[in-house]
Design a protein that fits this description.
This protein is an alpha/beta fold. Among the domains are: 61 residues, no CATH class; 91 residues, 2-Layer Sandwich (formyl-coa transferase, domain 3), CATH 3.30.1540. It contains 34 helices and 25 strands. It has a 7-stranded mixed sheet with strand order 3-2-1-4-5-6-25, with helices on both faces. A 6-stranded parallel sheet has the order 16-15-14-17-18-19, sandwiched between helices. The chain has a 3-stranded antiparallel sheet with strand order 7-8-9, with helices on both faces. The protein is globular and about 80 Å long. The two termini are 49 Å apart.
């Protein structure tokens, strides 16, 4: 994206990551800072030399301009293709929209993106917020932690990264539209929605069953087991046993074959219901081995497993070293490292050095290129880019882009869904068995009532009211959530005529996207070399767990495996506990988001060069940007950062406090002394009136006593009442939202995020919508396809097959509309 001029108005992590990701893709990014500098320049904890790791990580490869007023900042922004603006508090009252209109009056094609906690509309716009409350508002905080303790946030401001990545997707889309029409627009991205959109089955569990999903430490609550962290002889290991084949292999490997005779352990949810018993049986096997030995044994029988990395171990990781992933930071010493570009367009080369600008200095003369790993000079990205003399934006019409999606699980389908939402013709090429085998008994589960946890036999299907129905394979809530706006081609590529049909389809494709293992890609014949021999302009996007190269390329993985491998669990959890995973499979949306960004970037590059190109995307590497500050600190100090739980290195008090009711909680951050005074006046507890607590340092020193006093107050009131009382005084407080709160609450409903979508065989269902809001573009909410719904349409209208040929393919089972019995 070298032909894009971006102005980032200094703000929080979301805007900084948005700008950083655009810079990694080759855009010319200028950070506009106040005279005191971006807040990230002084964000704690600081490195030994007084530098902030946040600045060196998130402001890398940008230029810097000092602006003393909004008018000066707008003068810089007036010539930009993209303006990134962080919106807080009262700025969501309409002034941002007016600012965007003023700038677009000078440059009509400009894209102005507003990043805020709750979006620019809805009853919660403008509420006070913090990084902790972002976790609470998005529904992830409630699901993370032990069932008998307070929920706990992730080990960093990771919702901000998801918000920034969503913003990049919207920016790319809006720039394509501007290239076609000459008109820019306002893009509205709220952190609450980006996190609500980053759940797997959390929301459908409520809309389809009425059940409030819970947390259960390192187990994947209510759903799958064994999918947890286990103690080995020298540390921790993460195991993910989901399928029947993996369960059988695990029982044999651990010497627990007697468990195979238990019929109620045949389903993943059935095993979760007896998780304690299973763990007691298999844990002795893990304790006998070193963790690398255990991982090797598990991977040998195709069970996804990984060690639980800490940050020093991550920096020495053989897979990341082999893929030359880490980017040096020369300004901070020879050992300083940050994550390199997660998106590489074309052949890989060592990640280029990262250089953050001095205050008021231009972008470095050398910086990351278009993502292909080659450096480019400032003149390459800036030459001829002033005013009307800049080259035109690429006129890519996403409605004319055809994507073949080969994917399973979550990350790949999510990338495909984003592309379908944005107008691409996404054809989901799925095997006839992709949605399951055999016959599932119909009828609502006996004895089940709305709001209860469904019985294990039907729990994982997320069928409406637990009723699979006769066409159960088209009624699954999880499937219908991820596949909207797509077409389905149920094709056995290895069946008679399957390869010919695939090749003819590739001839008319722009993108072939998959999240299979490299072994599976080669087996299906959808590798880049094979496909470009058929269609030289095709873009291939491979989203495997570890990437197509390196010693771990063949390892089996799922989201929780990558989370622990990436070191995220080592930074998450209670200060007095061990490593802890986020309550949902957090890496999958990270991979899906950057898979979408990569595809759009490749379409941009193809428009510039005329050629297709391969993208080898490692889902592990798409997750690592959220660790950038921790990685840099660890590489300089050699030490693992401390686990903070719900507390903050900057603010005090900050925590999650029990409220009245069953498992009800409030997330609270006091950001300055004035907010503290407002809180003390509201709570009226004598402990809080200690004069020593008037400063942040004093409150940090007495955090435990303050927490006790706050809990006395919150436990006597409801979470929404406490939230409203504190917010009315400007204090950042947020009820810790459940899935029920997300669906039934006022903000997402006002933003039309919970959409009623006709789901064919399932009828109209409430499902999560899109977190992307454009002022001049609609995001449709079409239904997910039934299995093979578009077989004949695609074969006849797109490929030119006659009726006899289609009938033969159907008779041979190469095309299907039902799973094999």
């Amino acid at each position: 994206m070298q032909d894009v001029k971006v102005v980032e108005l200094a703000g929080g992590v979301a805007g900084a990551w948005c700008g950083r990701l655009l810079a990694q893709l080759g855009a010319d990014v200028t950070l506009v800072e106040p005279p005191s500098g971006s807040p990230l320049r002084s964000r704690v904890p600081l490195l030994p030399g007084g530098e902030s790791p946040w600045h060196h990580w998130l402001n890398g490869d940008k230029g810097s301009i000092v602006a003393r007023s909004d008018a000066e900042a707008d003068a810089v922004a007036a010539d930009a293709d993209v303006v990134i603006c962080t919106v807080t508090g009262n700025e969501a009252d309409g002034s941002v929209q007016a600012r965007a209109e003023r700038l677009r009056a000078q440059r009509p094609a400009q894209v102005f993106v507003a990043l805020s906690p709750f979006g620019l509309t809805g009853p919660w716009r403008g509420l006070a917020s913090s990084e902790l409350t972002d976790w609470a508002a998005g529904g992830h905080l409630y699901l993370t932690g032990d069932a008998d303790r307070e929920p706990v946030q992730g080990g960093g401001p990771w919702p901000q990264y998801f918000t920034g990545s969503n913003a990049v997707i919207a920016i790319q889309t809006a720039l394509f539209q501007a290239g076609l029409t000459g008109a820019g627009q306002l893009v509205d991205i709220g952190a609450m929605e980006t996190m609500a959109a980053s759940h797997q089955w959390t929301i459908t569990t409520y809309t389809h069953h009425g059940y409030v999903k819970r947390r259960d430490g390192n187990r994947l609550a209510e759903s799958y087991h064994p999918l947890a962290i286990y103690q080995c002889g020298d540390g921790w290991l993460q195991l993910a046993c989901a399928s029947a084949e993996q369960w059988e292999a695990l029982c044999i490997l651990t010497g627990c074959v007697e468990l195979l005779a238990e019929n109620d352990l045949l389903t993943p949810a059935g095993r979760y219901d007896r998780a304690a018993e299973i763990d007691a049986a298999i844990s002795p096997w893990f304790a006998r081995y070193q963790r690398t030995e255990a991982v090797a044994a598990l991977q040998e029988v195709r069970i996804p497993a990984s060690i639980v990395n800490d940050l020093p171990g991550l920096l020495d990781d053989e897979q990341l070293q082999a893929r030359r992933f880490w980017s040096p930071v020369p300004a901070l010493g020879p050992e300083a490292r940050v994550p390199g570009p997660s998106i590489v367009l074309g052949a890989r080369s060592p990640a280029p050095p990262t250089t953050a600008p001095e205050l008021g200095t231009a972008r470095p003369a050398t910086a990351p290129g278009s993502g292909a790993g080659r450096p480019h000079t400032a003149s390459e990205s800036k030459g001829g880019r002033s005013g009307a003399g800049r080259p035109p934006l690429p006129p890519v019409d996403l409605r004319g882009v055809r994507v073949l999606e080969f994917s399973v699980a979550w990350a790949g389908p999510l990338a495909g869904r984003y592309l379908a939402d944005l107008g691409a013709d996404v054809i989901k090429v799925e095997h006839p068995t992709s949605r399951g085998l055999g016959v599932v008994p119909g009828g609502v589960a006996e004895g089940w009532s709305w709001g209860e946890l469904p019985p294990a036999a039907v729990r994982n299907g997320t069928w409406p009211s637990t009723d699979p129905g006769e066409r159960w394979f088209n009624r699954m809530g999880m499937y219908n959530k991820l596949q909207r706006n797509k077409r389905s081609l149920a094709l056995d590529v290895k069946g008679p005529g399957g390869q010919e049909l695939l090749h003819r389809l590739v001839e008319q494709a722009d993108v072939v996207l998959n999240n299979y293992s490299p072994r599976g890609v080669l087996s299906l014949g959808i590798d880049h070399e094979t496909l470009t021999a058929i269609n030289p302009r095709v873009i291939t996007v491979s989203m495997s767990g570890y990437g197509a190269t390196g010693p771990m390329a063949t390892h089996f993985s799922l989201g929780p495996i990558l989370e622990t491998h990436a070191g995220l669990a080592s930074t998450t959890g209670y200060p007095d506990g061990g490593p802890l995973r986020i309550g949902v499979a957090f890496p999958d949306p990270a991979g899906g988001l950057l898979g979408t960004v990569a595809t759009l970037a490749a379409l941009w590059e193809r428009e510039r060069t005329g050629s297709g190109l391969p993208i080898d995307l490692s889902q592990l590497e798409t997750l690592l940007p959220v660790t950038g500050d921790h990685v840099l600190t660890t590489s300089v100090s050699g030490k693992q950062p401390p686990r903070l739980g719900n507390r903050s290195a900057t603010f005090a008090p900050q925590g999650v406090y029990r409220c009245g009711g069953d498992d009800q909680w409030l997330a609270l951050t006091v950001r300055d002394d004035d907010e503290w005074a407002a809180l003390v006046a509201l709570v009226d507890d004598p402990v809080l009136k200690n004069a020593a607590f008037a400063t942040t340092a004093g409150r940090h020193a007495a955090h435990d006593a303050i927490d006790d006093a706050l809990t006395r107050w919150t436990s006597s009131t409801g979470k929404f009442e406490a939230m409203a009382a504190l917010q009315s005084r400007g204090v950042a407080a947020m009820a810790v939202l459940t899935n029920a709160d997300l669906v039934d609450g006022p903000q997402l409903r006002a933003r039309d995020f919970i959409a009623v979508i006709e789901s064919n065989d399932a009828g109209p269902q409430r499902l999560p919508g899109s977190p992307l809001h454009f002022s001049h573009r609609e995001v449709p909410m079409g239904p997910a396809p039934t299995l093979g719904q578009h077989n004949r349409e695609i074969a006849r209208d797109l490929l030119g097959y006659d009726a006899a040929t289609i009938a033969r393919l159907e008779a041979d089972g190469t095309l299907a509309t039902t799973p094999p019995q």
